[in-house]
């Protein structure tokens, strides 16, 4: 059910917006404004929030963008044709009685037609107002307020999609006060040729994910602080894991005071040991699906100790580029 809902948000909801856009004909400029604001903000939210290779395909987000642009085109096309809403005819001489009867009849129909249109318009404007804040946060979260630490991307040979990453919780699932070390963590998936993270839309097996088993390399020169390698990989989306194994298999590095975590690695594939010195590009292990993980991916974070010995996350940059949700990193 969870998988179906995830796919519906990415695929079905934009198509419902398209159907409403083609069907509804606003009768006033205010109704047109309300409907357009609601559709555009809803589509913008889906476009910016969506984890497209996991819910459909990376390229499907451009279908959503096309529907959004269609909304704007219809808005600018319809706006001049709609008046202010005061289109009452002026009675001709000698037709005042007939005009009064027509006006009375129209007033009787107001509650069955006009009132309902006003209710829909006000509801659309209210919903658009509610959506404006999360859309703003999704845009604001694409920049990092703190200085970034330069690192080398830990994966090679493919196109990699950032499923979670950014400077607020709207765009980065890890950005919570309860987990300060994960504040700027990244979740990374690998793309298949059709822009999907898996071989098919409904595939859940580990082997169906393009990133499963991909080699993980040291993003910096440093010393191995800690490793774990014995946690079995989850099957499909199940997470029957003890709390102490929540990170699954992992490698922790100390790179000149920056503490690097590479998490959810493959069972028995960690290639380093505590105390070992590594150089940038040395192989550390392979991507798996261990710990609290519903699909194969690499969780990657950097943090530094503060004066009170709290480990707090810091942003990462790769060849001068900071990555956030929705970005694609191409590595040869």
TrEMBL record:
Cross-referenced SUPFAM superfamilies: Duplicated hybrid motif (SSF51261)
Residues passing through the membrane, by range: 6-24, 31-52, 58-76, 118-136
Organism, scientific name: Robiginitalea biformata (strain ATCC BAA-864 / DSM 15991 / KCTC 12146 / HTCC2501)
Segments forming domain M23ase beta-sheet core: 213-304
Gene3D superfamilies noted in UniProt: Glucose Permease (Domain IIA)
This protein's name: M23 peptidase domain protein
Record keywords: Membrane, Transmembrane, Transmembrane helix
GO molecular function, one term: metalloendopeptidase activity
Keyword Transmembrane: yes
Species classification: Bacteria, Pseudomonadati, Bacteroidota, Flavobacteriia, Flavobacteriales
Coiled-coil annotated spans: none
């Amino acid at each position: 059910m969870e998988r179906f809902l995830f796919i519906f948000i990415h695929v079905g909801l934009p198509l419902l917006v398209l159907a409403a856009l083609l069907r509804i004909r606003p009768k006033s400029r205010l109704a047109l404004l309300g409907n357009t604001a609601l559709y555009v903000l809803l589509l913008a939210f889906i476009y910016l929030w969506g984890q497209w290779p996991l819910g459909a395909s990376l390229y499907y987000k451009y279908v959503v963008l096309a529907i959004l642009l269609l909304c704007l085109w219809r808005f600018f096309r319809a706006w001049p044709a709609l008046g202010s809403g005061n289109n009452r005819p002026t009675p001709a001489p000698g037709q005042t009685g007939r005009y009064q009867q027509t006006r009375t009849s129209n007033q009787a129909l107001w509650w069955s037609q006009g009132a309902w249109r006003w209710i829909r318009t006000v509801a659309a404007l209210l919903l658009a107002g509610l959506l404006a804040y999360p859309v703003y946060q999704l845009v604001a979260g694409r920049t990092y307020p703190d200085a970034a630490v330069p690192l080398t991307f830990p994966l090679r040979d493919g196109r990699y999609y950032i499923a979670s990453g950014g400077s607020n919780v709207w765009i980065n699932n890890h950005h919570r006060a309860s987990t300060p070390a994960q504040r700027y963590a990244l979740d990374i998936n690998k793309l298949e040729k059709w822009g999907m993270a898996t071989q098919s839309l409904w595939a859940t097996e580990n082997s169906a994910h393009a990133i499963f088993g991909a080699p993980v390399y040291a993003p910096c020169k440093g010393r191995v602080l800690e490793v774990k390698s014995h946690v079995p990989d989850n099957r499909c989306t199940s997470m029957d894991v003890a709390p102490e194994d929540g990170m699954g298999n992992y490698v922790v590095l100390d790179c000149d005071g920056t503490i690097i975590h590479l998490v959810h690695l493959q069972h028995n594939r960690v290639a380093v040991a505590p105390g070992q010195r590594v150089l940038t590009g040395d192989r550390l292990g392979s991507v798996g699906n261990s710990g609290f993980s519903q699909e194969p991916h690499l969780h990657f974070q950097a943090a530094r100790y503060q004066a009170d010995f709290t480990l707090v996350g810091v942003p990462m940059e790769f060849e001068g580029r900071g990555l956030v949700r929705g970005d694609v990193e191409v590595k040869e």
